[in-house]
Amino acid sequence: MQACRSIAFVLTVAGVTGPLLPQAVQGQGQGQGLNALGQGQLSAQRQAFPIPNSAPPPEPSQPTSPGTMPVPTTGPALRSLPVRATPASALPVTAPFPDRGFRYRLGSGDRLRMSVFKVEGYEALVEVLSDGTVNLPRLNSVPVAGLTLDEAQRRITKLYSRYLRRPLVYLDLVAPRPVRVTVVGEVQKPGFYSISQESRQSSLGNVGAGQTSVSSSGWPTLVDAVQRAGGITGTADLSNVTLVRRSGDIMAPQSTYQFDFLSTLTGEGRTTNPLLMDGDTIEVAKLEGAISNEILLKTGKSNLSADSIAVTVVGEVNVPGLKQVRSNSSLTEAVMAAGDLNQLRADANFIRLLRMQSDGTVLSSRLRLEPGAPLGSQNNPVLQNGDVIVVARNGWTSFNQRLSQAVEPLGPLLNAASLYNILRQGP
């Protein structure tokens, strides 16, 4: 009798009444009843004997409404602050760094390697097909085009969760597809180009001149695209090169970036050579008005233009015709390529340079040949592709030429009259 009273007293102190214990044991079984008893004792101890200098137990998380985020405070209660989404129209259109914040998105031609951690038979080396899908074990076709690697990995993991318990999926990009870009403006061959990471050769050349081969490899850059398009023309404005890029979302606004490569070539500033993404558009602007000798020198020496240009030298030179000279050649070098002046007939003080301007007009300049003049001076300018050099005749040659042209129709008559006089007078 005393033993029963002791047991009842112990249960009362522990916070479990007598009638609850048999119900727990009968409803949940012996093991579960003991677990319920232990949890009841632990709860009673927390309420009656809190541990000093300890944090209160975490409250159960409450569901939040869409667009709100729980923010902890010093008190026991939690309050919610609204999260405002920035509309797409408010995003900046122009940014100084095109490579920041841009994630690579999968497309047709990408090669992927997929595996599931500690699960045999799920390894696959696949390529994104033209319809934007990949064929994976047990899943068949899975659309991944337009997704980043993280998004594609989450999609594949969700699909494998139907068959596997907590699958850990690895997804790697083995070989990216060629980058497809558009190059327009002042380049030799505007158009659409596909540039891969493999070692590639680009041919730079002007109309009528030889070709220059440039080798490159690695991820394509803006300079690689300009070289692939044959290089710049003589009227290209390297201080105004534009890159237009659209994000993965078709409805999102496009971003525009401007680069000044001319300041880098002249040593007045620095600019970046951005990496290209699929769908980029590159535009090289045209220079307006006359082009200075300094610009021609700097651009002609760069790897954005061909090594040679084509100029035409006519008039009183020893070997007239179309000549190929290096890009930053001067007037003197072009005359030397034509065999120098004809010393008996040429007028070194009357040389005319004809140049086609960007607006379609022809600029005519009268020069004087000075072999010792510095490159880029007034009488020894830097040439550009398509220039025409005309070397005039000297005064004595011009007089004799006009006299012979005037007397030539009378030549037979003068000869006949002279013969008649000789025959009539006799010896």
Secondary structure elements and their pairing?
Layout: H1 2-13, H2 20-48, E1 68-71, E2 79-82, E3 111-116, E4 124-127, E5 133-136, E6 140-143, H3 149-160, E7 169-175, E8 179-185, E9 191-195, E10 200-205, E11 211-216, H4 222-228, E12 236-245, E13 255-259, H5 261-265, E14 281-286, H6 293-301, E15 308-315, E16 321-326, H7 331-337, E17 346-356, E18 362-367, E19 388-393, H8 395-407, H9 411-425
Parallel strand pairs: 8-14, 15-19
Antiparallel strand pairs: 1-2, 3-4, 3-7, 5-6, 8-9, 10-11, 12-13, 12-14, 15-16, 17-18, 17-19
Jot down its keywords.
4 domains; 5-stranded mixed β-sheet; disordered N terminus; alpha+beta; Outer membrane lipoprotein wza fold like; 427 residues; single chain; wza like fold
Structure, described:
Mean pLDDT is 75; it is low at 1-95. A hairpin with a 7-residue loop joins strand 1 (68-71) and strand 2. The strands form 6 sheets. Strands 9-8-14-12-13 form a 5-stranded mixed beta sheet. The chain contains 9 helices and 19 strands. With 427 residues, it is of the alpha+beta class. It folds into 4 domains: 2-43, no CATH class; 104-175, wza like domain (wza like fold, 2-Layer Sandwich), CATH 3.30.1950.10; 179-301, Outer membrane lipoprotein wza domain like (Outer membrane lipoprotein wza fold like), CATH 3.10.560.10; 308-393, Roll (Outer membrane lipoprotein wza fold like), CATH 3.10.560.10. The radius of gyration is 43 Å and the shape is elongated.
Ends apart, CA distance between termini: 185 Å
Strand order of the largest sheet: 9-8-14-12-13
Global shape: elongated
Q: What is the strand tally?
A: 19
- Continuous helix count: 9
The main β sheet shows up as:
5 strands, mixed
